[in-house]
Amino acid sequence: QKKIELYLKTELEALTKEVVKQKGEIELKNVEITDSISYARRIQTTILPDLNKLKDSFEDAFILYQPRDIVSGDFYWFDKINDEKFMLVCADSTGHGVPGAFMSMIGSTLLQDIISRQHITRPSEILKTLDKQLFSTLNQNLELGVSNDGMDMVVCEIGIKTLHIRFASAMRPVI
What we know:
By secondary structure, this protein is an alpha+beta fold.
């Protein structure tokens, strides 16, 4: 019985050492992954427009942006097009966390191109163009069917002097 007890104690100690070692490895990996995702948050935050740009046109404006995870599929985009027109976009990409963040980066980049470089400012045309470009971007190398990636979005064109709003929406209310 003493031999069995000694054997079991030795085995338990060996297994405990192994579990403690694995726990340390998992904790290290967790820190590395969290640090990496936190760095990704800093990158994602840099593509979001500066609140001061919004406040230049609308002094009482504010942004409520609270990602559920470290990085987010939610994003906003805005820019003053000229002295009379301001464009505002609020979007919710498919996926949460890292996949959603990838989608938000793609969406934000495409919006910048569509509105600022292609000079498309009619909300419905922005949505149509974005939909085509998203489909093209996400499905160009897809071999096994159609991707279900996308985003819900509202695009608003605000008349700075008239305060009239023209908007188009994809699965989102204007408010």
